[in-house]
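Hey, quick one: can you model this chain's 3D structure?
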Amino acid sequence: MDLEIKDVSELLNVSEKTIKKWVGEGKMPAYKLENKIRFSRTEIEDWMLNSKMQKEKDSNLINLKSEKAKKLVAKKIGTQAFSLFRALYKGTVINNIKGDTKEEVIKSSVKVIAKNLSLDADVLTDLLLDRENLMPTALNHGVAVPHTRDFLLPKTYDVVSVVYLNKPIEYGSLDGEKVKTLFFLFACDDKRHLHLLAKIAHLTRNEETLNFIHQHPSKTHLLNFIKRWETKLSLEKVSS
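Sure thing. Here's the predicted structure for all 240 residues.
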């Protein structure tokens, strides 16, 4: 799947001007087709997993009690505004998964996740491990996003399930940190897959957010946090 500048801009929640700047500086993989900049889905996915973009220095999350904020988001932001919130709502939060290796924790996690999605656990595990063999899905800072390029969820919605490990494990992270939180990502189409991957990568670049996630919040607390965070992102996009 080829992407245009506007697609990547929406995926990463940054301006088209910034995308062009990154391409011009050689910081983002791209190619030209008929004198127009294009992006490979696979290359952009790998770039998001390996990107060393500067951490966000977010201020306090926006106050959802503000009627102005609610109206602005409702009026101007499309269906992607709360995509991560919706995917997490459809998914599950699993505590204290045990295992000493990546393979062990993925197998143990998928037994629960596959049952909730009415999917074959063995097939899903094989697909996820095949993806890990191509390149680890760690995002640095103790977080990984197990997913597969060869599978689209046979649903009309996306699912993200969060798994908290009993103890950190080696995962092949670029920063050398052991992984302690996994975001299992299953999307129903390619573009939504990339969009959610970008959102999770963006979310986990913030130190305050990482501290919150690594405290193993419940599903309710995690959903509330994500909703406030996505609202803030949406308002930033409207005002930019």
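One thing worth noting: The chain has two domains: 2-50, 73-239.
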